[in-house]
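Database export, one record per block. Field names are fixed; values are copied verbatim from the stored entry.
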Amino acid sequence: MTVWSDLKDWSQSLQQNPALRRVSMTIGNFDGVHRGHQELIRHVLRAGGCSDCFPLLLTFQPHPVQVLAPDKKHTRLFHLQDQQEELARYGIRGIFRQAFSRQFSEMPAEEFLQDYILKFFHPRHIVVGQDFSFGAGKQGRERMLREFCNEHRIGLDVVPPYSLAEGGARVSTSAIRQALSDGDLETARKMLGRRYYLQGIVEKGDGRGRTLGFATANIRPDVDFYPRTGVYVCQVEIGAEVRRAVMNVGLNKTFVEGDHHPIKVEAHVLDFGADLYGRTLKVELCHYLREEKKFSSIEELKTQIGKDVVAAKEWKE
C-alpha cells in the first residue's frame, strides 16, 4: 500500500512507475471500509477493460464536515491506519489523501474534473456511489460526471446504495455509528463485515481493579468515538493469542460523581496476569452485557464484576 498526500510526490511517482498511468479509482472518505465501501472496491477491481489498472482511492483529510461544519462534532469510527489495512485487504493498492480546505471546497465542479481529476490522475475508470457529489456547493452530480467520462473515454460505474437485505437498512458510516451508540453490535458487525473494535495504548490507571481482584488494562483509544457506555464481552489480541475479556466503557460511576468526566475504557482479560502497560491492544466488542451502574458498595461492585466474568466465559456466538 502506497499513500500520497502531495501532488508533487504523486507526479514524481507517475514518472517512476508507469502503472500509475492506468488508474481505476474511487472517491470518498471510506471511514470503516464497510460493506458499501467494499462493494465500490469490487467495482474498481473488476472495472471493464481495466484488468491492468492500478486501484486507487482518492480521499480527503481532514473530513470535509470538520472544515465545512466545524460546529458539528465529527468523529471517525476507526484510526486512519485501520483504513489503510482494510483497503489493502480488499485490493486497493494506493491512497491519495487530498488536503481538504475551504479553498479546495470552493473549486467549481467542472474545474474539479478537468483541472484536478483529469490533469493529475487521468483515470481509465471511475467508481462512485449513487449519491456522490463534487465541486463547490455540491454542484457536480452523476449527469455531469457521466458526460465528462464519455467525453474523455473514461469508464464509469455509479453504484447504488448497499443494503443488508432488500428493502432493509442502508449501510453507511452514520448508520454504523448510530448502531454502536445504541449498543447494537450485531447490526454494526453486519454493516462493517467484521466486528467493531477499540484500539489503544494501555496506560497506568489508579490500580483499583487489581485491589478488587480483577486487574484491568486502562486503554486510551486512538479515536474520539465511543460506543454505548456499559459492559461488554470482548476478544483481545495479545501477540499471537486471542483472549476473552470483560470491558467497561464509561465513567466509573461508583467512584465519581456527575457525568462531566472523560470516558474511560477498562478491560479485564480473563485468566491473564501478565503486565500489559505500554502495549497497544486491539479489543473487539462481541456482546453488550449491561448498562454501567453506580453501586452502593465495593462489595456489590465486586459481586457484579464476578457475574460479568462468568457471563463472558459462558457467552457463545
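Remark 1: Residues 53 and 175 are 32 Å apart (CA to CA).
Remark 2: The mean pLDDT is 92.
End of record.
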